[in-house]
Write a structure and sequence with these properties.
single chain, 115 residues, mainly beta, four-stranded antiparallel β-sheet, 0% helix
Length: 115
Amino acid sequence: DEFPTTPDPVITTETFTGTIGVNGSATHPVFTGATGSVVATLTSLGEAPPPKVGFSMGTLSISGVCTIHLRNDNAIVNSALNGTVSTLQGSLCVSVYDTGGLTGPVDYTFTVSHP
């Protein structure tokens, strides 16, 4: 017997950049086209990285509210958040934020790989 196969979803990697200030944060929406694994990786914290920042991933409501599901308040370069999108088309949000250790603005870059 032959069973129909479902093709693996195409994985897309998006790059997000910005700057956060002391006590600041930045949130970026991420839209997925299928269910599957999502990995957000903090790839850069500027030329003089702070000891740590906050890094989180959650779901984004239609009204724009970001509900955090994964959080790392001690994130450094190469910290990753691994999650799963269980709805066919998911609206996610990924945030970078000061956890109290910044002394000035910090440039950041992170990637999100998702279906």
